[in-house]
Amino acid sequence: MPLIKELSAKMKLKRDNLLAAARELFIENGIYNTSVDAIVRHANVAKGTFYLYFEDKEALLNEIVYDINRSLLLKAFNAARTSEAGGSTDRLIAMIDYIINHFTDNPQELKLVKKNFSWPLIKEKITSADKDAELSEALDSLIEYRHIKDLSSEEARNIIFAIVEMCGGLCYSCIIHKQPTDMETMKPTLFMMIRKILE
Amino acid sequence: MPLIKELSAKMKLKRDNLLAAARELFIENGIYNTSVDAIVRHANVAKGTFYLYFEDKEALLNEIVYDINRSLLLKAFNAARTSEAGGSTDRLIAMIDYIINHFTDNPQELKLVKKNFSWPLIKEKITSADKDAELSEALDSLIEYRHIKDLSSEEARNIIFAIVEMCGGLCYSCIIHKQPTDMETMKPTLFMMIRKILE
Amino acid sequence: MPLIKELSAKMKLKRDNLLAAARELFIENGIYNTSVDAIVRHANVAKGTFYLYFEDKEALLNEIVYDINRSLLLKAFNAARTSEAGGSTDRLIAMIDYIINHFTDNPQELKLVKKNFSWPLIKEKITSADKDAELSEALDSLIEYRHIKDLSSEEARNIIFAIVEMCGGLCYSCIIHKQPTDMETMKPTLFMMIRKILE
Amino acid sequence: MPLIKELSAKMKLKRDNLLAAARELFIENGIYNTSVDAIVRHANVAKGTFYLYFEDKEALLNEIVYDINRSLLLKAFNAARTSEAGGSTDRLIAMIDYIINHFTDNPQELKLVKKNFSWPLIKEKITSADKDAELSEALDSLIEYRHIKDLSSEEARNIIFAIVEMCGGLCYSCIIHKQPTDMETMKPTLFMMIRKILE
DNA sequence: GATGAATGAGTCTTCATTCAT
DNA sequence: GATGAATGAAGACTCATTCAT
Q1: B7 pLDDT more than 70
Q2: A74 and A33 in one domain?
Q3: Residues D158 and D99 in one domain
Q4: Domains held by chain A: number
Q5: Does the structure show a pLDDT above 90 at A81?
Q6: Fewer Cβ in 10 A, N or C end of chain B?
Q7: Among A23, A39, A54, residue at a domain's last position
Q8: Residues A35, A127: one domain?
């Protein structure tokens, strides 16, 4: 797309500025209280510039949500990999623990991600021609780590998926609404449930 | 308060009209694409009438989401109660099955409910002075049905809660996005997981 | 107008209720922040009743402003009459002093009256068939008290009128805005000016 | 701030258009009967443009009232300065005469100004960092022209102020309501009173 | 006479998007 | 590519007034 690579660097910067500004404002004030105007002001660019880099506000939002998820997943993955956790179940729980802690510390981010998370978006990014290799790999290893068991890989994937949904849902209600209890109290129960599911 | 029952009945009708109109439009076009204007047009009342019955759009939304949840929960509860399911786990699964089937048939309703579900709202309704007795009871029996086990009632409640979140999350992604698979395929895996959790 | 005198008493009561309620609210919140709705609520009557007694909001406002002026003028008049003030100038100043003190204690009333005072309204009330005799007399004596001087009665009236406007204007700016100074400081200067005007 | 003077000029023009349109409509229909909608229609700009230049309707109103006062005061001042009037009292009367004549010719403007005049506004404009020097000077010379007399400058200012209020009040009732007489008839009496006040 | 539910024109304000420069 | 003034449709909400009961 960019004709001259040199320019592309400058442009990337501007784009990143916008992304960062929007992320900050979305997290601080919520999506529906953040106008394009506020974003460009915070990023110190002109209104029109926004539309040079993003189709519209939603495209920007999707990208931000994707970035947050991607970065968090990779960090959680590395945390689990470098932990001394022995079995694969322990590693999965270490990952989830990492994610829970992160959202406990960043509840606004959780709000943003949860309300706007979309699997199709992720799927596209790990399926398309210029796919996100790093993320793909992390996700794959997550899914396939249970190959030892007598489950088909689809079934394994579905189980992991279900666990993830459960964790996501609990994060939201326990951290944001403290319902039915706080996250700290819920955690042992959650981990126990996961262990039971995975035997 | 109402001196004349007849009048009150008329007003209830109008209120219900508005509720129904809004529900339809919310389901069809989404919340943020449904203006108060559209609602009153669809309900065939004047703009001002809306504000006679609802403080604002959000109050209306909350009521709709609550109504959907309430009615679905009660129906699921009755379905489970009248099923031949023996054990308590079977009854819980019967309930969940009912809910899954309902959302499979009404994916738009699922969209509406999922994005705007809020435990605090439910909590308020089953806690306040003039609480919703019927719903309260259903929820209580859900939570306390596992008193036989060696779990504290809080832990039992938390487990049920987690299962509900898992089911809710899976419904959304499997029914709306068909991710990672469709609901029909996911169901057996889900039920198996629930059984494992509850032993 | 009223067919039955008995009813008229009840009606007068309702009318007075509305008047009193509106006056209170106008003074407390200002005219443009006081809705007919608030008035009828505060007066404990139905919305429609309002329009049974007043053509519209403005008619009500006019009546309130008139009542305030009338009552204040009469009270000021009596205060001056019963004061030991000797000359006619002293009596006029005593009157003005009374009015200034009243507005100093009731700045909100001053706001209401000043922004909505209208001579035509007063004129109509003291000119019409069923004129307000008491007020008429007070005003007349005010105007004609200077008959000893070699001024035509028109000129005397105009001078008094001008003095009244000056006092009214000063009240507003000195009491409400403390501009150019507070009323207490302005008073001696004002009285000195009046004396000079009247010799 | 403006990098390009040309652009700024265009914008100033648009702002002035809005100002002029609003002024016309305010004068013709009154403030509360003039909607932002009507203003932008009359100025041939889009609704949003209004809010590009003015915070809200009130800010616009304040600016208009200020502009009218400012321009009238300066014109009156110049008229008095260039008149052959000898003493300072004569010059003050010349000024007042100018103002009276102006309002006689523009009664609608008088209405607008009188109901919305606000000393605090004026005060702010002649006190703030980037104060209106020209107006400041005119006002100062008005106030201080009586330094010869044995009055403190505060007292002199207060007297002038009182005279101004008297004139303003008389203008309104004599011009708008012809009460108690028309302005032409009132003028000699008024001037006589001013002379008496100032000896 | 009294009621109060219903009206709907009207208000201000926001904001994503465009486009001439 | 970058700008930011301009747009105007759309939004939520208000409230004086009416009228069937």
Answers
A1: no
A2: no
A3: yes
A4: 2
A5: no
A6: N
A7: A54
A8: no
Which has the higher per-residue pLDDT, C7 or D175?
Answer: D175
Residue D94 sits in the same domain as residue D4: no
Please check whether residues D82 and D146 belong to one and the same domain.
yes
The single-letter code of the amino acid at B32 is: Y
Residues C110 and C47 in one domain: no
Boundary-marking domain end, from C54, C70, C97 = C54
Reading the block at residue D60, the tokens are: 């616009």
Residue B3 is predicted with a pLDDT of: 37
Chains B and A contact (Cβ–Cβ under 8 Å for 3 or more pairs): yes
- Residue A145: the pLDDT is 59
The pLDDT value recorded for residue A1 is: 40
Nearest to A30 by CA among A89, A115, A99: A115
**Protein-contacted positions of strand F (CB under 7 Å):** 1-20
Question: Are B21 and B113 members of one domain?
Answer: no
Give the domain extent around C40. Answer: 1-54
DSSP states of chain B as a string? --S-HHHHHHHHHHHHHHHHHHHHHHHHH-STT--HHHHHHHHT--HHHHHHH-SSHHHHHHHHHHHHHHHHHHHHHHHHHHS---SHHHHHHHHHHHHHHHHHH-HHHHHHHHHH--HHHHHHHHHSTT--HHHHHHHHHHHHTTTTSSS-HHHHHHHHHHHHHHHHHHHIIIIII--SS-HHHHHHHHHHHHHHHT-
**Angstrom distance (rounded) from CA B23 to CA B39:** 9
What's the whole-model pTM score?
0.84
**Nucleotide E16: closest residue by CA–C1':** A36
Supply the DSSP string of B139-179, one letter for each residue. HHHHHHTTTTSSS-HHHHHHHHHHHHHHHHHHHIIIIII--
pLDDT given at position D147:
52
Q: How far does the CA of residue C146 sit from the closest CA of chain D (Å)? A: 15
Contact D96, D52 (CB under 8 A): no
- What pLDDT is recorded for position D148? 54
Q: Is residue A117 domain-shared with residue A177, that is, in the same domain?
A: yes
* pLDDT band at residue D117 under the 50/70/90 scheme: confident
Q: Sort residue D142 into left (φ over 0), alpha (ψ -120 to 50) or beta.
A: alpha
Interface of B with A in 68-127 (CB under 8 A): 115, 118-120, 123
| D198: closest CA of chain C, how far (Å) | 9
CB contacts, 8 Å: B115 with chain A:
115
Residue A27: CATH number of its domain? 1.10.10.60
User: Where residue A118 sits, what CATH number does that domain have?
Assistant: 1.10.357
